[in-house]
Structure formats: structure tokens, C-alpha cells
Amino acid sequence: MVGAIEFMYEDCFFKKKRQAQGEYYLQLLSRVFDSLRENNPELATGDRRKGSKKTVLVNFMDICETMHRRPDHVMAFLLAEMGTSGCLDRQRRLLVKGRFARNNFEEILRRYVNEYVLCNSCTSPDTILTKENRIFVQRCEQCGSGRSVAPIRAARV
């Protein structure tokens, strides 16, 4: 009987030790994911509503703020790539003429991020887009590199 009590005590001790290790592991895992989110923000996907002839990108301003880009530049790129027209309404939502699926917006926003947001040298999203002498210039806040970026043109077919 004494052996059984000692065994239960050891089992309880190891169980608590495993729980403590598990909690420590979860804390470390949480720190790693926080660091990853800080250095690589997720692509903000658009909440959209479909009407009969228009698609509304509800969180358009949130997307622009996340990327640190002017709404008129992002809107010009989206509309040119979709080959349609659109505008911002009073609630600052993007109204796009035509019906589009969510994956259309996601794919085009990924292209925008790759072309106009991410640094080519260090792939940091911490960049600034300015216009100098009719040319858009992207400057990275992390590594200091700069490059000219292509102007927005109509969709490539």
C-alpha cells in the first residue's frame, strides 16, 4: 500500500511538471507568433457585400491603413486590375461596378502588396510610397533602400 501512495505522488508530481512545461511552451509559442505578426502583417482581406450590380468592399479604409497607402492609389490599382469603375461612398467604402468574388479582391490585393508595399531588398512591409517628379518611389524604413515603382495601368490581359 505504501508503494501505491508513493507512485501516485510521483505521478501527480510529473503531471504538474508536464502542465508547467506545457504552459511555458504556450507562452513561448505566443511570443513567436506575436513577433511574426508584428514583422509580417496578414493581408487584410476585404469584407464585401454583393448587390445586384455592385460589389461593396466594406473595410476598404482598414485595408489601406494596414498597408500605409493612400486610398486613391489602392482604389486606382484595384479598379484598373478589375477593369471596371468604382468610387468611395459616404461611409468610405469602395463601391465597385459589377459582381466580384472575395478571391478576386484577395488576389489583386496580393499583387498590390508585392508591387507597391513589400521592400524588394528585405521584404519588409514597412515602406513609404511618395511621388517625386511624376514617378512613384518606394522607400523602406527598415533597410533604407529605395526604388521606383511602375505607374498604375489598365489590367493586363
Question: Keywords for this structure?
Answer:
single chain, 157 residues, Defensin A-like, 2 domains, three-stranded antiparallel sheet, 4 helices, 7 strands, flat, translation initiation factor activity
Can you summarize this structure?
The protein is α+β, with helices and mostly antiparallel strands and 157 residues long. The protein is built from four helices and seven strands; from the N terminus they run H-E-E-H-H-E-E-H-E-E-E. The strands form two sheets. A four-stranded antiparallel beta sheet has the order 1-2-4-3, with no helix packed on it. A three-stranded antiparallel beta sheet has the order 5-6-7, with helices on one face.
Strand and helix map with partners:
Layout: H1 2-39, E1 48-50, E2 54-57, H2 60-67, H3 71-82, E3 86-88, E4 94-97, H4 102-117, E5 127-132, E6 135-140, E7 146-149
Antiparallel strand pairs: 1-2, 2-4, 3-4, 5-6, 6-7
Explained architecture:
There is one protein chain. The protein is of the alpha+beta class and 157 residues long. The chain has 2 domains: 1-39; 48-149, Defensin A-like, CATH 3.30.30.170. 47% of the residues lie in helices and 19% in strands. The chain has 4 helices and 7 strands. The protein has helices spanning 2-39, 60-67, 71-82, 102-117, and strands at residues 48-50, 54-57, 86-88, 94-97, 127-132, 135-140, 146-149. The protein has a 4-stranded antiparallel beta sheet with strand order 1-2-4-3, with no helix packed on it. It has a 3-stranded antiparallel beta sheet with strand order 5-6-7, with helices on one face. Strand 1 and strand 2 form a beta hairpin. Helix 3 packs across helix 4. The chain is flat, with a radius of gyration of 24 Å. The model has no long low-confidence stretch (mean pLDDT 79). InterPro entries: IF2/IF5, Transl_init_fac_IF2/IF5_dom, Transl_init_fac_IF2/IF5_N, Transl_init_fac_IF2/IF5_Zn-bd. One of its GO terms (biological process) is formation of translation preinitiation complex.
